[in-house]
Amino acid sequence: MFLGKKAMSSMPPEFPRKIAALIREYTTQLADVHTLRGMLTIAEQGLVPVDQWEIALELARQTPAYRNISEQYEPLLLRLEHVADIHEVERLLATMPEARKSN
């Protein structure tokens, strides 16, 4: 059934904001995973007590390296939040590079 060009390209206004929020959550979790992996490696070497991982994670979240991962898509996400056309959402998402990994 043909819905018309307007119906196919429009979407609920909250849709782009929800996608942006989902990607923000993903990149924050990605940064946490990389940070925790690094912490486990250090703990295996006996350099950091394992029982203090929560404190170490909170400290790591304040570093530029963590923010580089967790905020890497922020300029794109800010643009995405204000898009009203599904085709523009698709175009913006297609420009996203693969998630950067921590060193």
Query: Runs with pLDDT <50, length 5+?
Result: 1-5
What composes the largest sheet? none
Give the topology string: H per helix, E per strand: HHHHHH
The percent range for helix content is 55-70%
Number of helices: 6
Structural class: mainly alpha
Over the alpha carbons, how many angstroms does the gyration radius reach? 19 Å
* End-to-end CA span: 50 Å
Strand percent estimate: under 5%
pLDDT averaged over residues: 81
Structure description:
The protein is mainly alpha-helical and 103 residues long. It has a domain at 24-94. The chain has 6 helices and no strands. The longest helix has 31 residues, at 14-44. It is elongated. The termini are far apart. The model is unreliable at 1-5 (pLDDT under 50).
Question: Key terms for this structure?
Answer:
6 helices; disordered N terminus; 103 residues; elongated; mainly alpha
Task: Give the helix/strand layout.
Layout: H1 5-9, H2 14-44, H3 53-60, H4 64-70, H5 74-80, H6 86-94
Helix pairs in contact: 2-3, 2-4, 2-5
TL;DR?
This protein is 65% helix and 0% strand.
